[in-house]
Design a protein that fits this description.
Distance between the termini: 7 Å
Structural class: mainly alpha
Shape: globular
Number of strands: 4
Length: 145
């Protein structure tokens, strides 16, 4: 499968760097209410203040360059009004069951009509480590179309 060259700019933007504060990504207005879900929700599961310093509990070999690339891809897509996140529960469902507040699906666009993959991050027993577990894979698959 060839790379989807129409999405090239989304991978080459430099909105964020390894020196960007994680809080600046989480609170970036382009992400709206879901920015807080890009990294583990709740305290104690990650450390570091910048994208380059990000450390997730129980994970090794976190690549700061890949973390930055993922954050830049998400911002590029969001700024282009491309879907990056799908909220899967209504406000009413979340009000009835507050555990659903921190749930949704992140989307890494491929080529319409081609095969797709679902990358499911592990760690749901304590936290979702998507930045390490599934986002890197989803980004690479997206690049392949």
């Amino acid at each position: 499968m060839q790379a989807n060259h129409s999405m090239t700019n989304a991978y080459t933007t430099d909105f964020y760097t390894t020196d960007t504060k994680i809080s600046d990504v989480v609170n970036d207005p382009v992400f709206g209410k879901y920015g807080r879900l890009i990294f583990p929700v709740g305290g104690g599961y990650y450390s570091g203040t910048t994208l380059g310093e990000l450390r997730l509990i129980w994970y090794n070999n976190i690549d700061p360059a890949k973390t930055v690339e993922i954050a830049n891809y998400m911002k590029g897509q969001a700024e282009a009004d491309e879907a990056v996140f799908f909220d899967i529960y209504t406000d009413e469902e979340k009000a009835f069951d507050p555990d659903k507040e921190n749930t949704g699906l992140f989307f890494f666009k491929g080529t319409p009509g081609e095969r797709f993959a679902v990358c499911n991050a592990g760690g749901g027993f304590a936290y979702v480590g998507a930045m390490q577990d599934s986002f890197p894979h989803a980004l690479e698959l997206s690049k392949m179309g």
